[in-house]
Amino acid sequence: SISYQRVEDYWAADLNVTIGHYNFDTIKYIYFGDDTVAFEALKAGEVHYRREFSSRIWATGYDTPAIRAGKMKKQTIVVNRSAGMQAFIFNTRRAPFDDIHVRAALNWAYDFEWTNKNLFYGQYARNGSFFQGSELAASGLPSPGELALLEPLRALVPETVFGEPVANPVSDGSGNIRPQLRKARALLETSGWNIIDGALTKDGKVFEIEFVLVQPGFERIVAPYIQNLKRLGIRAKIRVIDPTQYQNRVTQYDFDAIVYSFGQSLSPGNEQRDYWSSAAADQPGGRNVIGIQDKAVDSLVESLIFAASRDQLVAASRALDRVLLANHYVVPQWDSARERVAYWHGLRHDPPM
Questions:
Q1: Rounded distance, CA 352 to CA 80, Å?
Q2: Per-residue pLDDT tens for 145-190?
C-alpha cells in the first residue's frame, strides 16, 4: 500500500481547475495480488471505492448486506470519451495471419452476440471502430475530405474502403452461427485452406493458432471462440502465462494471437506512428504489435499527424479507420459507454457537468 497526505497550503488549491478536487486529508491505495481478495476487502469496508471491470461480478457479486442497507452504493456513470479499440489481434509477421482472407474468416467465427448474452449479461456493445465513441470514427460513405486522401491510394487499399465502413458480422445470439462459419470457410478456401482428415490444411500444414493470455479471466471468453474455430478445422488452444513471461513474449512478438487495446484521445497524433507505421513494425517492444507494414496506412498516418485543421484531422482519422477495418487486422471485442463504480456511503460525487 501507499498513502498520500494532503498539503494544506497547496498553492493551487483555489484555482478553478482544482476546486472540488483533493478533498481528503489522507488517501491510501492498497494493492492486491488477487482480485477476489480485493473485492472481498471492498465488501468488508476495508476499501471504500472500486471501479468494476468484470461484467460477471457486477451482475452477480454485489448482492451484499452493505448494498441492501444502503451503506454501499453501486452506480453506472455515462461517459463521453473515445474508447479506441480492444480486440483479439493477430501477429501478421507470421503465416497465415499475413493473409487478409484468413483474418476476415477469424472475425466471422467470433460470436459476440452469444458471448454478450451468456457471459457478459448483456452489458456491452461490439466495438466497430479504432476510434470508437468519437467523431473520429468512420461512418457512412467517405466524405470529400476522406476521398481526397483515399483516391491516391486506391491501388493500395481494398475496394471496400470506398463504401460503408467494414462492419462486424452479427449473429442471433443462439450460439448457432452456421451461416457465419460458412462465410468463414469460403474465405479460407479462397486462400487455399481445405479440410483434410478433419483438419484445416494448406500445402500439407495444419492451421494452428495459440491464444496467449495473461489474465485467467479471459479463458472463459476465448474458450467458446475456440470451439467455433475447431468447427472450421482450426487447431486452437489457450496458453495462460505469468506477467513477466507474457511481457517478454509480446516485446519479442512471439505470439499468434493476444488480447490488446489501442487507446485513443480526441486529438490523435504522433502515437499513431507507434501503433500502425511500417517503421515501428519490427522495433522490439514497440506498440505496432500487429506488425502492420502498409504504405497506404503509412500515408494516412502522416496525413493525420500533419493535419492543419480539425476538419482535416477528422477526415484523416476516418480514412485511416476505414483502411484498418478493411484489412481485418483485428477481431474487435467490446466497449461500454458506462463506467461501473461501487463506493461506501461516506463518499459522494457531483453529477456530470
A1: 10
A2: 999 999 999 999 999 999 999 999 999 999 999 999 999 999 999 9
